[in-house]
Amino acid sequence: MTDWPALVAAAADRAGERWELAGRLVDAARDRQAAEQALTALTAAPPALWPRLDDELRAASAYHATGRWRVAVGGRRPLSALLAACSRNGRERERAVRSEAVRTDPRLLPVLMIRTADWAPPVREQARRTLDEMLAAPGVLSPEQAATVLGVAVLLRARLRGDHAFTAVARALAAAPDATLATARAAADLRTRRAAHQIWLDSGRAGQDALVHAALTEIDPVSRVRCAAAVARTAVRERDAARLERLLGARCARVRVEALTGLVEIGRPEAGVAFLQTRSTLLRATAQWAVRRAGEDPAGLYRAAVSAGSEADSRTGEVSPGAVAGLGECGTADDVYLLLPLLGHGRPRVRAEAVRAVRRLGGPMDPIAAMLTDPAPAVVRAVTRALRGEPGLPPTGRLWELLNGERPRHVRLGAHRLLRSRDAWTRVEADLVLITDPDPELATRGRADLVAWMRRDSATAYTPPSPAARERIRALLTTAAPALGPDRTRLLRWLVETSRPA
User: Fold this and answer.
1) If residue 263 lies in a helix (H) or strand (E), which one and from where to where?
2) Is the distance from CB of 73 to CB of 92 less than 8 angstroms?
3) CB 354, CB 302: distance < 8 Å
């Protein structure tokens, strides 16, 4: 006896199981009980299975070449109509979408929708007429089916001629009871969930309290922001500050941006002060705009915040990373003196933001170059980004020491990133050093970068390596040959040997 739910779940993930499912469906169509069990299991299938099952049924010659298929599609049961709608024969597909079973059984809606994008015009047009008639009837879309039907429609929208199914389903859902649309908005599939929220918003049926709740709790970030934007538009029109203030408590920074923007538009720009030191760059920029609209200078507020923390203790003072970042965004070159002491702060996030701020304001780079051995990976990443475009900092010899020595992984990765930016042959040499490293992550990084260079950039390596570098690369290439493979080793050796000054 077939475990239909388990087989359907497996077929959703593996092509081999879809072949098995297709064969079982052909056999099940001859038995009433098995056919109902199979169709019930398919009703609960994830949306992505339906187009794949259609492809499997139409492509599998093993079914069509035997009498099993003829018997399976010859019955009047809904499963027989489903199989006929997936036939490779266009006339069979057209008869199927005309059949009573397809016209009256909502469980067959997914396969009917697939046929609305059929390449054969008679099949496609008949399927569209049948779909429109079915969805026009009240109650056809049940809450249990809503997510699956909409999910299939979303997938079809990406296909040629697939717009009709999505438009029809969206129209039906917009007119469906609240419970049906709510089920679709709670779909596990993110694309389905997002489409359901958009239909909900476009229908005009969403109440303001429900929209606020969705903006605060919805798991899909895109839908969350769309709901927040809808709330903000209405609140600005009605000048309802209380509703916008509720959104300011959201965890999502984009939602708070919508709320803060709305407050500024209704004349409450002072609300931006509370968000000047937030972690989100976008929300921080919005807060800076709001403070300027209120007639204040955000740079002055940032200076006061950074100064208060620095005066306590440059290493342990309670200075916010957001204040440091904000001063870097709004300050001037004269503010660098406030930031330099924070390069030695006890909190890694403060040090990382201080690196970025000093770089942005044109401060001295020598203190930043000395931080390549910082114990925090986030700080070293910030230092590496700041030093790009500074060819002499730190000296190349120092970078080789950091790459070759007994250093933490994040320090060696930082040195490798900077060596890559020096010149083509220094990059090749650094990659070869890493390829044979006992650390598998470093070895993978080195190999991937060298392969990328050979594929995209080697043709523009016009300057040859120095004689000393050529000898080092030859030696490293011999050691790295097993990891590179014979073809890449031969190509790289040829590039090294034939590269000569113009």
Assistant:
1) helix 253-265
2) yes
3) no
Other residues' Cβ atoms within 10 Å of the Cβ of residue 55: 15
Hey, what are 172's tokens?
């039906």
DSSP state of 388: T
**CA-to-CA distance for 24 and 11, rounded, in angstroms?**
12
| 479 contact partners, CB below 8 Å, separation of at least 6 | 432, 436
Which DSSP state fits 335? G
Task: Tell the burial category of 440 from Cβ atoms under 10 Å away from its Cβ (0-12, 13-18, 19+).
Answer: exposed
Count other C-beta atoms under 10 Å from residue 329's C-beta: 18
Residue pair 289/264 in contact by the 8 Å Cβ criterion: yes
CA–CA distance, 2 with 378 (Å, rounded to integer): 53
Give the whole-angstrom CA distance, residue 165 versus residue 110.
10
Q: What are the tokens at 369?
A: 């170059």
Token pair for 237: 């029109």
Task: Give CA–CA dist 31/291, Å, rounded.
Answer: 72
Amino acid at 219: I
Q: pTM score, two decimals?
A: 0.81
Residues 285/329, Cβ–Cβ less than 8 Å: yes
Contact 319, 305 (CB under 8 A): yes
Rounded Cα–Cα distance for residues 267 and 272 (Å): 12
Cα separation, 153 vs 189, whole angstroms: 13
187 φ, ψ (degrees, to nearest 5): -60, 145
Q: Give the integer Cα–Cα distance in Å for 4 and 21.
A: 9
Please list the pLDDT of the chain residue by residue as tens digits (502 residues). 788 888 888 888 887 788 888 888 888 888 888 888 888 888 888 899 999 988 888 876 445 555 666 666 666 788 888 888 888 888 888 998 998 888 888 889 999 999 999 999 999 999 999 999 999 888 888 888 899 999 999 999 988 898 999 999 999 999 988 899 999 999 988 999 999 999 999 998 889 999 999 999 999 999 999 999 999 999 999 999 999 999 999 999 999 999 999 999 999 999 999 999 999 999 999 999 999 999 999 999 999 999 876 554 555 558 899 999 999 999 999 999 999 999 999 999 999 999 999 999 999 999 999 999 999 999 999 999 999 888 788 898 899 999 987 889 999 999 999 999 888 889 999 999 999 888 899 999 999 999 998 888 887 777 888 888 888 988 898 888 888 888 888 888 888 888 665 4
Q: Is 267 helix (H, G, I), strand (E, B) or coil?
A: coil
Question: Are 319 and 328 contacting, i.e. CB atoms less than 8 angstroms apart?
Answer: no
Return the structure tokens found at 340.
Answer: 């330099």
